[in-house]
Write a structure and sequence with these properties.
The protein is an alpha/beta fold. It contains 10 helices and 7 strands. The strands form 2 sheets. The protein has a 5-stranded parallel β-sheet, with helices on both faces. A two-stranded antiparallel ribbon has the order 2-3. Helix 3 runs parallel beside helix 5, helix 5 runs parallel beside helix 8 and helix 6 crosses helix 8.
Length: 234
């Protein structure tokens, strides 16, 4: 890896941007000098992080294709999306709980976008690396999304709060499936959370963003992955 991969592009959302919800300040902020790429930069890799808060796969695909057209100087690219894609417009759900509502990016469109990004990178000789999603906490996230809205109406539409977890998980599983079907390298950031006795302690107040402890788990997962590649290629 030292000789083969020097430059890595990251395409993701707030997770790989290192964004947390600061309970004291009551706002989102980026962790200072602490993001998912912090540790692997110490291994001699040049990292360019294109991750953005609120980014979805369709938006990222268009940005990536434009960047590839202009020219990207990298040997590998990390792709991490799904958290914003699977989300709903909760105000609309609360107002009309008896109607059908679709997520920001339907699952079929999400999978198409990830596939297009993988293929576009490979056409440019860039190795794609897919990343799945840290788990969500249904109770905390339901409380978060229903602030100022009719929580009863949202719950009526959901049927049960755990649908939030299952729906979010379907996007994470889609990434795993695509990594297998497209023969992509894959980083599993979800398992370290699930192995904790109470992974809720590793999430922010909103129930979806990893907190500082959660980002430590992600950092370590990326470092272990990078070291394993170095071992295999040397």
């Amino acid at each position: 890896m030292i000789n083969m991969i020097k430059r890595v592009e990251i395409w993701g959302d707030s997770v790989l941007k290192g964004v947390i919800y600061d309970t004291n300040r009551k706002k989102y902020r980026r962790l200072e000098n602490s993001h998912a790429m912090e540790k692997i930069t110490r291994l001699g890799l040049d990292i360019r992080n294109n991750s953005k808060f609120g980014m979805t796969a369709p938006k990222a695909k268009n940005l990536m294709l434009n960047a590839l057209e202009k020219g990207i100087d990298a040997e590998a690219a990390i792709i991490e999306f799904g958290g914003n894609d699977c989300d709903f417009k909760w105000a609309e759900v609360a107002e009309q709980p008896d109607k059908e509502h679709t997520p920001n990016t339907p699952l079929s469109v999400f999978k198409e976008c990830i596939t297009e990004m993988v293929n576009a990178l490979r056409r440019k000789g860039i190795k794609p690396i897919l990343v799945n999603l840290p788990p969500i906490h249904s109770g905390k996230y339901f409380k978060w999304i229903s602030r100022g809205l009719d929580a009863g109406a949202i719950l009526r539409w959901l049927g049960d709060k755990e649908l939030i977890y299952r729906h979010h998980e379907s996007y994470s599983l889609a990434v795993v499936s695509l990594a297998q079907s497209l023969s992509c390298n894959f980083i599993d950031v979800r398992l370290p959370f699930l192995l904790k006795r109470d992974y809720c302690d590793y999430l922010c107040e909103d129930g979806i963003h990893p907190n500082e402890r959660g980002h430590e788990l992600i950092n370590q997962t990326f470092e272990d992955y990078a070291k394993s590649l170095i071992h295999k290629l040397n």
